[in-house]
Amino acid sequence: MFWLNEEYATGLADIVLDGVVCVVDAVFGQKQMEEDHSTDDLHVGESIRQIAGSDVILLNKSDLVEPQVLEDTKALIRSINAAAPIYRTVKGEIDLKHIIGISAYQRPPPDFSAASSTRSADTHVHTENCDHSHDAPAPTHYEVRGISSLQVTCPPLDQPHLDKLDEWIRNALWENRVEPAGGDSTTTPLEVQILRCKGAFTSAKGVHYVLQGVRNMYEISELPAAESESLGVPDTGKVVLIGKGLTEGVRRSLEGVLA
Q1: Does residue 11 form part of some domain?
Q2: Residues whose CB falls within 8 Å of the CB of residue 129, separated by 6 or more in sequence, listed in order
Q3: Does the pTM exceed 0.70?
């Protein structure tokens, strides 16, 4: 559904949307993200939008900056998109298995948590011969025009809960708002602006589903049983949102739909 070309969208052409890869310049990336402005409806800037919509991020020229600058840039990227793995690269060199054949639009999204929000996949192997400290960097909070990530775990869902989840996603993506937890119609809806959503969840009958969405387009597709088994998809699923307004109130709203 993410293709503009009808042949690609209907599968007539021998081509698939494998995933979105974003390359961030380790030397100037942080400065660009902090200074990048845009006149669009989200006012987040193109660089931040690209990071938010990515499935894999390459932090290139990592050999040209001090270790602390590299960690700060990674933390800034993580604050925007905590679901995408980050690979440090030099001259863009990377094992192709990390960027080709990743099936990002067919597979469940990777897990992340608050504890791992500043960590990332890394092609560098730390040894006693490294010329930098292995101590964890001091936590640093970045506010990047309100863009953040939110993950909510999802138990197996019966059909009424699947329908409620679908409705919640439609409201979030199409109406830019969700109802607060508790179902009080007199309470003001929570405003959100979603750049990217992804997820995986299971029905009470054991059927696995994958959610993929970009801005106001989304799709919930059934994962074939054979593929679910080969990927080892757990029954406990998750929904990942990247965008603006993802407060604890939004988390409670989504958890209320899933409960």
Answers
A1: no
A2: none
A3: no
